[in-house]
């Protein structure tokens, strides 16, 4: 097939020799790995004694239990390959380990948390409120067509379709690696979950627009105006946010392309930003202005077209 020619058999002294692939380890590296596992110490209950499964002389690992295999693949393997294998190989292996770990965490954390908190509650180390949270909400939920929070009135999409107003737009802002990231969407369901001791939590189930890639899902121009492509949705299974995390926006369709909508953030009614220090009345105040970077020389105005070919000309009699 003509691919991976560096792995094709090489004829040497009348024999075909297979070159070692990039993910293989030398015998010395295998022995070093076995000695590392032999001397490995972990907290009590983290795993069984993996050192008993190691045979240094034969460079073999055998007899590990299922849980030990999970620990090895998810916790230990990334530490091993990052030092012993080439960068492009270790990156792929570590990414796979982390992905699997996140998936297992998503599937198993709720059950583990319930068991752990139940045990701590029996020992008197946590309160009844924590036990209620660990056991999860009741199986029934209450749905609302609208909800007031953070000074805003939110309605679901179906409610807005019959009105002249638009109050289903949602924005949630997160700090990711010291950078603020905004997620824009529309509220499709408002759900209230109840817990056993009377606690309640309200969630917004939203259709989120794709803000993961600038240019395809969203744009930000030189005036800091954000537009989102309403035809591109964010690829996520986690569509719920706490109602208290949401602020309100509304979307305006583009004049030339309706698939691109401008995002307009608003403030709650009756909310006033009072200055901390009083300013003299006669002091000069610079009102909202936008600085636009203008490239080119100072005589660029002479090169700007004063007429527009797209518009109809005016006939003067």
Tell me the layout of helices and strands:
Elements: E1 10-12, E2 15-17, H1 27-38, E3 54-55, E4 60-61, H2 66-84, H3 87-122, H4 128-135, E5 141-144, E6 146-149, E7 152-155, H5 157-160, E8 169-176, E9 179-194, E10 200-208, E11 218-220, E12 226-229, E13 240-242, E14 247-253, E15 260-265
Antiparallel strand pairs: 1-2, 3-4, 5-9, 6-7, 8-9, 8-14, 9-10, 10-13, 11-12, 12-15, 14-15
Structure description:
By secondary structure, this protein is α+β, with helices and mostly antiparallel strands. Helices cover 25% and strands 25% of the residues. Helix 2 runs antiparallel to helix 3 and helix 3 packs across helix 4. The longest helix is centred in the first third of the chain and has 36 residues. The protein is flat, with a radius of gyration of 31 Å. About 4% of the residues have low confidence. This is DUF4216 domain-containing protein.
Number of DSSP E strands: 15
Helix content: 10-25%
Quaternary structure annotation? single chain
> What proportion of the residues form beta strands (DSSP E)?
15-25%
Give the ordered list of helices and strands: EEHEEHHHEEEHEEEEEEEE
Largest sheet: 9 strands, antiparallel
Give me the secondary-structure category. alpha+beta
Rg for CA atoms: 31 Å
Which geometry do the CA atoms define?
flat
N-C termini distance: 77 Å
Number of self-contained structural domains: 2
Unreliable segments (pLDDT under 50, ≥5 consecutive)? 281-292
């Amino acid at each position: 097939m003509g691919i991976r020619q560096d792995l094709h058999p090489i004829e040497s002294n009348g024999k075909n020799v297979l070159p070692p692939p990039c993910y293989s380890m030398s015998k010395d590296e295998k022995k070093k790995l076995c000695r590392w596992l032999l001397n490995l110490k972990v907290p009590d209950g983290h795993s069984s004694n993996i050192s008993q499964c190691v045979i240094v002389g034969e460079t073999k690992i055998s007899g590990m239990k299922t849980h030990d295999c999970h620990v090895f693949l998810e916790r230990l393997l990334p530490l091993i390959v990052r030092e012993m294998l080439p960068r492009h190989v270790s990156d792929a292996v570590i990414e796979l380990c982390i992905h699997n770990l996140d998936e297992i965490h998503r599937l198993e954390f709720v059950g583990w948390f319930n068991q752990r908190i139940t045990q701590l509650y029996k020992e008197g180390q946590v309160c009844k409120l924590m036990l209620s949270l660990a056991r999860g909400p009741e199986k029934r939920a209450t749905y609302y067509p609208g909800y007031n929070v953070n000074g805003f009135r939110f309605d679901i999409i179906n409610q807005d379709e019959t009105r002249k107003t638009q109050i289903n737009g949602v924005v949630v802002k997160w700090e990711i690696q010291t950078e603020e990231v905004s997620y824009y969407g529309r509220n499709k369901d408002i759900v209230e979950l109840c817990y056993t001791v009377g606690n309640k939590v309200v969630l917004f189930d939203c259709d989120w627009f794709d803000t993961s890639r600038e240019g395809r899902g969203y744009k930000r121009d030189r005036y800091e105006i954000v537009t989102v492509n309403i035809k591109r949705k964010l690829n996520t299974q986690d569509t719920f946010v706490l109602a208290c995390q949401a602020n309100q926006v509304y979307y305006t369709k583009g004049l030339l392309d309706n698939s691109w909508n401008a995002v307009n953030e608003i403030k709650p009614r009756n909310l006033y930003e009072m200055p901390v220090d009083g300013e003299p009345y006669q002091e000069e105040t610079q009102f909202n202005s936008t600085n636009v970077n203008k490239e080119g020389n100072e005589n660029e105005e002479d090169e700007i077209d004063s007429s527009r070919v797209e518009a109809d000309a005016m006939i003067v009699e």
